From TrEMBL:
SUPFAM superfamilies: Enolase C-terminal domain-like, Enolase N-terminal domain-like. GO terms for biological process: menaquinone biosynthetic process. It comes from the Bacteria. Keywords: Lyase, Magnesium, Metal-binding. This is o-succinylbenzoate synthase.
Length: 376
């Protein structure tokens, strides 16, 4: 049994090495919340709430996650699984069940769920990937590129990442920045596994742009319409050969059930943060695999802790497409773990040690902490 005696929260800020622009906004730095769960016997589990700073990808922000974590989630996790005798919990799913009293707030919950899995992995001596059901020693890595000032700038970024060996390149698109830049990348890299991501930027009656993209040999078109526009996604998928991939549309496994019944997409992007942690992410993987839907692990520019959890998740058998587990150096000059996650020739090794497999760099973490909160 595991009983949590202490919850520690750190709001940490790191600058990005290269500005990242999507259809809604640009970012030059990121703030994430690092969660630490300490058990009664002194074992520690680390997690990361990789929420956006602004309400563009999701209604949640780092401010809302901080308020939710300090006011509601930390007390719930402290009492997770406890009975009158205060015996604690046996499996991380019990922590997820305790947090289920809170509706929504998936990003806020994800950091606690991740930390519970890491703590359980440390306590049981089982590597996190194996604990989740993973069976790979390494995972294929793709890379995500933002909207650049010019097409030449974009081609330079693509060439850089292809030269580093990444096995798939994702391009952010938006109205006015779609067919022309993607066509230029395809012309320059005719054999490159390539896909595009709109982050729901297009109106549900826009079809012409996607018909043109459909002719460019893409792996997938990700989230063309708004999250709840599943009927529109289904109608678009019916007239395209290129698979649609759902991201923001699937926050919970029940959303996936709806999407599957409608035929709203043929690929699923599973993000640990978007879905509320590793527990629901594994469930979504299992559901998709049962229906023959390929999945890959998307990212939220996680620091080393969240990135390590993504690597572990990507080792599960249903992750048949390259995941956004690119090396730390693509985003940060220095990460918050003592050793960064490294991508070599398009592959990232899966840690075979208990816990996340990466050690937090406490002095560096402390130096970049904006706000600190401990319960009790």
């Amino acid at each position: 049994m595991i009983r949590i005696d202490r919850v520690e929260l750190r709001r940490v800020r790191l600058p990005l090495v290269h500005e990242f622009r999507t259809s809604s906004h640009a970012k030059r730095f990121l703030e994430h919340i690092i969660v630490t769960l300490t058990s009664a016997d002194g074992a520690v589990g680390w997690g990361e709430t990789a929420s956006p700073s602004g309400p563009y990808f999701s209604p949640e922000t780092v401010d809302s996650c901080w308020a939710m974590a300090t006011t509601f989630l930390a007390p719930l996790v402290l009492g997770a699984g406890s009975s009158a005798s205060g015996s604690g919990w046996r499996h991380p799913s019990e922590v997820a069940a305790a947090m289920a009293k809170v509706r929504g707030n998936h990003f806020a919950r994800a950091g606690f769920d991740m930390a519970a899995w890491a703590l359980w992995s440390e306590t049981t001596g089982v590597p996190l990937a194996k604990a989740l059901g993973g069976d790979r020693a390494r995972v294929a890595a793709g890379v995500s590129l933002g909207i650049e000032p010019t097409i030449d700038d974009l081609l330079e970024q693509v060439a850089l990442r292809v030269g580093e060996g990444y096995r798939r390149v994702k391009l952010k698109i938006a109205p006015g920045w779609d067919v022309t830049p993607v066509r230029a990348v395809r012309a320059a890299f005719p054999d490159l596994p390539l896909h595009v991501d709109a982050n729901g930027a297009y109106p549900a009656d826009e079809v012409a742009v996607f018909r043109q993209l459909d002719r460019l040999g893409l792996l997938m078109i990700e989230q063309p319409y708004a999250p709840r526009a599943l009927v529109a996604h289904a109608a678009l998928q019916a007239v395209l050969d290129t698979p649609l991939c759902l991201d923001e549309s699937v926050e919970e496994p029940d959303d996936l059930t709806t999407a599957l019944r409608l035929g709203a997409g043929r690929i699923l992007n599973i993000k640990v943060s978007r879905m509320g942690g590793l527990t629901p992410a594994v469930r979504a993987h299992d559901m998709a695999r049962e229906h023959g839907i390929p999945v890959w692990c998307g990212g939220m520019h996680e620091f080393g802790i969240g990135r390590a959890a993504n690597v572990a998740l990507s080792s599960l058998p249903g992750f048949t497409l390259p995941s956004d587990v690119s090396g730390s150096d693509k985003y940060y000059a220095r990460d918050i773990t003592t050793s960064p996650i490294v991508c070599t020739a398009g592959w990232v090794d899966v840690p075979a040690t208990p816990g996340l497999g990466f050690t937090p760099d406490l002095p560096f973490l402390t130096a970049n902490t904006i706000t600190h909160h401990t319960v009790p």
